[in-house]
């Protein structure tokens, strides 16, 4: 789930940080650049583990900052396919579940990877929400937000950053021109890393099912 990744980066260090110890100021700048960011094919940066080397320190003409070449290691969250992880339910709807690890929320369990057979029904505690029910042995086993959910990683994807098309810009202008018309639901925020999980196997699903 967690890995150390070696990175080499050319870092510009602002003049106001030059009175601090070099490693402390460099680490602070690296944390600002990489912490909680996704690097494609490497995963989500959790922390700067250590700094292996610092070289350079050049000041270019017209720039008061010094520029260093830094080699360092990052702690990355990157689950592998087949790994079993425990998470909590963040959302539940007709399309399946969205799970959260606390520091990472873009884990989705689609309908075809839910326990089979399963069906959605209105949540008795909140009629606007959906909860999923696993049917087994003539009994119903609900999946709700109180349980920890054990899932298996089915895939890890890094979607390309979407581009704003001219047609979308035109639609936005039309919406502004017609404010009385019903507005569409806003699109989901872009997720640079998406984990797809599966609950369709023995031992997966709410932990309480298997105690």
UniProtKB/TrEMBL annotation:
- Which segments constitute the RNA polymerase III subunit Rpc25 domain? 83-210
What Pfam families would the database entry show?
Answer: RNA_pol_Rbc25 (PF08292), SHS2_Rpb7-N (PF03876)
Compositional bias per record (Basic and acidic residues), positions renumbered to this chain:
169-184
The GO cellular component terms are: RNA polymerase III complex
Q: Where is this region: Disordered?
A: 169-197
Q: Which domain of life is it from?
A: Eukaryota
Query: Could you tell me where this protein is found in the cell?
Result: Nucleus
- List, in alphabetical order, the GO biological process terms annotated in this UniProt record: transcription initiation at RNA polymerase III promoter
What UniProt keywords are attached to this protein's entry? DNA-directed RNA polymerase, Nucleus, Transcription
The residues covered by the RNA polymerase Rpb7-like N-terminal domain are 8-64
The protein's role, per its UniProt record: DNA-dependent RNA polymerase which catalyzes the transcription of DNA into RNA using the four ribonucleoside triphosphates as substrates.
Assigned protein family: Belongs to the eukaryotic RPB7/RPC8 RNA polymerase subunit family.
Q: What is this protein called?
A: DNA-directed RNA polymerase subunit
Q: Which organism is it from?
A: Actinidia chinensis var. chinensis
The taxonomic lineage of its organism, from the top, reads: Eukaryota, Viridiplantae, Streptophyta, Embryophyta, Tracheophyta
């Amino acid at each position: 789930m967690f890995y150390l990744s070696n990175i080499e980066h050319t870092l510009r260090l602002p003049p106001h940080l030059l009175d601090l110890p070099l490693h402390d100021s460099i680490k602070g700048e690296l944390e600002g650049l990489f912490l909680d960011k996704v690097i494609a094919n490497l995963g989500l940066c959790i922390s700067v583990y250590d700094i292996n080397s610092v070289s350079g320190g050049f000041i270019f003409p017209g720039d008061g900052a010094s520029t260093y070449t830094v080699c360092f290691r990052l702690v990355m969250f990157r689950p592998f396919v087949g790994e079993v992880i425990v998470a909590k339910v963040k959302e539940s709807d007709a399309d399946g579940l969205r799970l959260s690890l606390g520091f990472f929320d873009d884990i989705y369990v689609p309908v075809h990877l839910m326990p089979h057979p399963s069906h959605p029904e209105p949540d008795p505690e909140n009629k606007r929400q959906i909860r999923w029910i696993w049917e087994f042995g003539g009994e119903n086993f609900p999946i709700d937000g109180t349980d920890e959910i054990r899932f298996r990683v089915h895939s890890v994807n890094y979607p390309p950053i979407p581009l704003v098309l001219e047609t979308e810009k035109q639609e936005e202008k039309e919406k502004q021109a017609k404010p009385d018309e019903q507005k569409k639901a806003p699109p989901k925020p872009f997720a640079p890393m998406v984990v797809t999980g599966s609950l369709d196997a023995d031992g997966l699903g709410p932990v309480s099912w298997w105690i």
